[in-house]
Design brief:
With 436 residues, the protein is α/β, with parallel strands linked by helices. It has helices at residues 5-14, 24-31, 35-47, 75-81, 107-110, 126-134, 149-157, 169-188, 192-195, 209-219, 239-242, 251-254, 268-278, 297-309, 317-322, 353-372; strands at 51-54, 58-61, 85-88, 99-102, 118-122, 139-141, 162-164, 203-204, 224-227, 233-237, 261-262, 282-287, 290-296, 326-328, 334-339, 374-385, 394-404, 408-417, 422-435. The protein folds into 4 domains: 5-61, Arc Repressor Mutant, subunit A (Orthogonal Bundle), CATH 1.10.10; 75-188, Udp-n-acetylmuramoylalanyl-d-glutamate--2,6- Diaminopimelate Ligase, Chain: A, domain 1, CATH 3.40.1390; 193-309, Roll (CBS-domain), CATH 3.10.580; 324-435, Hotdog Thioesterase (Thiol Ester Dehydrase, Chain A), CATH 3.10.129.10. The strands form 5 sheets. It has a 6-stranded antiparallel β-sheet with strand order 14-15-17-18-19-16, covered by helices on one side.
Length: 436
């Protein structure tokens, strides 16, 4: 299948060495295309993660992110989410951190969590910043606080990344958590483009049954789309179609002339019903009628099975906070129990207010979902802390549904220690969502 000028430019860019400069004039000259065509192709290459524009440097070919999962956030995207300023490390912004570390613990404890491909979220603790950089961990500095010259010089010498956000640590983690949650929602809608095979083996209308046998022997497949001179899909041919036909019979006489075709943005769930119900083994993926890919029933079923095995990907901040908590049998209210860890502490060695609010707010949501299967959006949260909650304290969080109507709900949430003493209390007022 011949490539368009646009596709040729993208292939040319993809073959460039990492770090190569890419410009409109360079592409136009090398491939003998107009500067307008070159500009549009470079913009698409940037969207695909093949190149990145860096201020005062230019557009560079970067390491591709073809295997990136939809729930992954690049350092560039994290910076945009938290409205950050990039101090250094622009050439590494396409990397995706696989975990987030909040530097709210002593250095000896923090050392255990520092590993490459992480991102350290830290305030104005120079010692923690240096330790993270020495372990090749990029920094997201909160509170709008500029790092010292020592820290910046160290980061530059190690080719590491420093991002400064104007928000405090709790707000930053909440913003990242929200973005991750939105990605997980998107993950539920798997599209044809996510699973289609782009390197398609096909037959042309003028081909014969003999050509089908040759292609089948070479590829090991038995089902192929059939296209015309303009690359429009006109049929599908399978082993059943060619069975008993002479070798010189044209493919156009034996193929299925009413093939099932789909678009790249079609839902995999939707096409799976059609393929299963009608016994279709393959479907061609088309754009403006032209063949761009192919999807088999096996591809569809494997993709759906993978989603069922992994309903959630990545670690959101809420998940990290709640990971050590468990449900407690309570006939009247919803109660969870767990330990305050170093990860949840502030500089004084007790649970931070932000973490406590997250725990209590989430417990309220769980109580509402469990009893009424309803969602809600928090409108107001009143927080009363009577005593500090030291690291290592085993706590119980109980949510009591005081008032639940079709539009609003009031939930009282209490935090107690293992002796039953009340430590923290909150009142959550929320607006009801749709029934699930």
């Amino acid at each position: 299948m011949s490539k368009t000028k646009h596709q040729q430019i993208l292939s040319f860019i993809e073959d460039l060495a990492i770090g190569s400069k890419v410009s409109v004039r360079f592409i136009a000259k090398e491939l003998d295309v107009s500067e307008g065509t070159a500009y549009r192709a470079i913009k698409e290459a940037e969207n695909k993660g093949l190149v990145r524009s860096i201020p005062k440097v230019g557009t560079l070919r970067i390491e591709g992110v073809k295997e990136r999962q939809i729930e992954d956030l690049t350092l560039q995207e994290v910076s945009q989410i938290v409205e950050g300023i990039i101090v250094c490390g622009e050439n590494r912004l396409s990397e995706c951190p696989n975990k987030f570390i909040i530097a709210a613990m002593e250095l000896k404890d923090m050392q255990r969590y520092l590993e490459e491909d992480a991102l350290c979220i830290v305030g104005n603790r120079t010692d923690a910043q240096v330790l993270a950089l020495e372990n090749n961990v990029p920094l997201l500095i909160t509170g709008g606080l500029e790092p010292s010259r020592e820290v910046v010089d160290l980061a530059k010498s190690l080719n590491s990344v420093i991002i400064i956000s104007p928000y405090d640590t709790f707000v930053v983690t909440t913003m990242i958590n929200r973005a991750l949650f939105d990605r997980l929602i998107e993950k539920e809608l798997l599209l044809v483009e996510d699973i289609m095979v782009r390197d398609v083996k096909y037959l042309k209308e003028e081909a014969t049954v003999g050509d089908w046998y040759k292609l089948s022997q070479v590829t090991g497949h038995s089902r192929f789309p059939v296209i015309d001179e303009e690359e429009n899909v006109t049929g599908i041919v399978t082993a059943v179609d060619v069975a008993g036909a002479d070798q010189d019979v044209p493919i156009s006489r034996v193929m299925n002339k009413n093939p099932f075709t789909v678009g790249r943005d079609d839902s995999v769930t939707h096409i799976s019903r059609k393929m299963v119900w009608e016994g279709l083994e393959i479907t061609a993926v088309v754009e403006n009628g032209k063949l761009i890919g192919i999807v088999s029933l096996q591809d569809v079923l494997e993709a759906l099975q993978q989603i069922q095995k992994q309903p959630q990907f990545g670690e959101t901040v809420d998940n990290l906070v709640l990971s050590g908590f468990r449900y407690v049998q309570d006939s009247e209210n919803l109660t969870i129990k767990g330990e305050i860890t170093q990860f949840m502490s502030n500089e004084f060695g007790s649970a931070s207010c932000g973490i406590l609010v997250t725990l209590m707010n989430t417990t309220g949501y769980i109580a509402l979902r469990k009893k009424y299967r309803m969602d809600a959006i928090t409108e107001n949260f009143s927080f009363y802390q009577f005593y500090p909650v030291p690291v290592g304290t085993e706590i119980s969080i109980t949510a009591k549904l005081l008032l639940v109507t079709k539009k609003h709900c009031n939930i009282e949430i209490e935090v107690s220690n293992d002796q039953g003493s009340l430590l923290v209390k909150g009142l959550m007022t929320a607006r009801m969502g749709d029934n699930k």
